[in-house]
Amino acid sequence: MVTLTGQSLCMEQVKRILWENAAVVACGEAMARVADSRRAVEKIVSSQEIVYGITTGFGKFSDVLIAPDDVETLQLNLIRSHACGIGEPFPEEVSRLMLIFRANALLKGLSGVRPVVVERLIDLVNHRIHPVVPQQGSLGASGDLAPLSHLALVLLGEGEAFYQGEKMSGNDALMKAGLEPLVLTAKEGLALINGTQAMTAQGVLNYLHAEQLGFAADGIAALTMEGLKGITDAFEEEIHIARGYPEQTAVAKRIRDYLQNSQLTTRQGELRVQDAYSLRCIPQVHGASWQALGYVKEKLEIEMNAATDNPLIFDGGKKVISGGNFHGQPIAFAMDFLKIAVAEWANISERRIERLVNPQLNDLPPFLSSNPGLESGAMIMQYAAASLVSENKTLAHPASVDSIPSSANQEDHVSMGTIGSRHCAMIIANTTRVLATEWICAMQAADYRGVELLSPRTKKVYELGRTACASIFSDRIFHYDMERTASLIRSLGWNDTFIGLEKNTLMEA
């Protein structure tokens, strides 16, 4: 069980909620803060004070006063009118995280909603009701208005949701789970949709997938080292300590651990003095991407515990401050950085693929073909990988450098963080397929070199890879092999599967 406090949610807890189906509960003290904040809103409404978003319209309509009798209609109109999402829905995992992060933000007790709103968000999580949220249509300030409006619709018994994997109306999903729709009152609609939870939810899922992809990149690169009889001297600890980046040093150690007791690697001067950069600089390039992941994780863990709506209520309602915490710039930058970091894993992987298939760069059969000329082997696998790498370069263009004014120029600078987050997911998918292609080629090279000569750990990488892609003895439809191998990468907890084997395999060796 994971307890939401509004302050302490972390990546490890997110993993438990997503992949171990851990239940979610609200902290009692946090719920007391929510109730205190709500009393402040009710006092503002009853005294008819002029406070943005509580007794006024929204955005450019902030100067329009709202009568007390129209408060509920105002909130309903807000949710319906702002539900302008476009395109395919986010994955259910993203929708699930949006619910969790929105509940967690409200538990800070600064948003003025009733406790029942938080309870219902958590009910949706625990009953596995995931709102259908279109991916496109957010500017990333004033937060993710359109995506979060689609999420809020389900609380009202409107919109659409996935209930236990089946798509249906929001009302049907609530009924099947035995839940009642909410009627929103003052401030609650605005509190639900004024936030960065769509970009943050997709961003967190991106990070979790990228983390495992990084471990996969290291392990697959180690197998490629053996396929190309790579020189291990470049991975010695001293050279990496001399530069000083801990992430670079960690990658070098992982490669050394993978390759321990290999009979296929070489030392400098045995076959050649130096390897090409795509082999020799694995720690430097992969390590730099790991540095970016560290930055991204820090920002995401701050944001998933952040109050990002407007206005915020302080000192029991004595201060109600309109600000801009809904602006997604920190996450926009983080996602753009993550896009570049993951794209570089694909960039250098594709260069290693080229070295595996190009007969001018190795002593293996041309394109790893068992019958060169009559059969093309891995020739077009490299084409496909190159295509994905090129596409990544377009997707990696920073979304955060763009802005466009909205709401009659009241909202005149926006983050485009949700676009960056979506493009990052696309880059991760492309990079997964590039690494899958390298894995296939590295396994085929190992077949030619002698699988029995692999190190104990890379042999395990080889054997697992062969469960998705059999050895290639003649041309076939390689699309299926590439997709199965990519699916294997996505499904693995690579760190737990291979990094955790270190002690056992070294003892066996």
TrEMBL record:
Residues modified to 2,3-didehydroalanine (Ser): 142
Family to which this protein belongs: Belongs to the PAL/histidase family.
NCBIfam families, per database record: hutH, PRK09367.1
Gene3D superfamilies listed in its UniProt record: Fumarase/aspartase (Central domain), Fumarase/aspartase (N-terminal domain)
Pathway annotation from the record: Amino-acid degradation; L-histidine degradation into L-glutamate; N-formimidoyl-L-glutamate from L-histidine: step 1/3
The record's account of how the chain is modified after translation: Contains an active site 4-methylidene-imidazol-5-one (MIO), which is formed autocatalytically by cyclization and dehydration of residues Ala-Ser-Gly.
Compartments where found: Cytoplasm
Record keyword Lyase present: yes
EC id: 4.3.1.3
Originating organism: Fictibacillus iocasae
Protein name: Histidine ammonia-lyase
Catalytic activity: L-histidine = trans-urocanate + NH4(+)
Record location of the 5-imidazolinone (Ala-Gly) cross-link: 141-143
